[in-house]
Each structure stands twice: as structure tokens, then as C-alpha cells.
Amino acid sequence: MITLPDFRQKQILFIKTESGVLNKIKIYNDNIVFEKDERVENRVSCHRIFSVFIIGNISITSELIKKGLKYGISFFLLDNSFRCYASIGAKNVAIIY
Hints:
The chain has 2 helices and 8 strands, in the order αββββββαββ. With 97 residues, the chain is an alpha/beta fold. The longest helix has 9 residues, at 62-70.
């Protein structure tokens, strides 16, 4: 169950990808790492993340999904018009097309 301190201390991570660039999100030392063209753009500790919204096309590793579920992180995949087409780890989320 999520408590009020979880909402105060945890972050929602938004990742906007660029077309024509190799975008990757992976796990490294209990950090979520976002890479563009094999260069690290940003990294955030899994302990601080509540959910991740990914806008656009990206490569996701299976290890990221496993560790994300272990830490209770929900992943939402959105197209470029911000419509959610998939969710991973989120419970009771309705997707309407």
C-alpha cells in the first residue's frame, strides 16, 4: 500500500525520446539510466521513483522491468500524442483507445 510519505519522497520520471537517436533505458547499480546514442543522459535511484512515463520509442531491458517491479515502479508507455498504449506493473489501470 502506498502511504503519504511515499508521495512526498518519491518522484515521477518523464522520458521524452528523440527520433533518429538510439534511446535506451536500463538498470545499473539500482539506478535507472537513460542513454542517448550510448551516452548517459540521466540516472535516478530506483528507491526514489514512483512511476516512469516514456514518451516515444525506446529500448527497455528485461532486467529493468524485473527490478522495477521489485521496487514497485510502474512504467507507462505513451505515443507522441501522450496516449498510453501500455503499462507495466500498474494495477487497475484502464486503457481506452
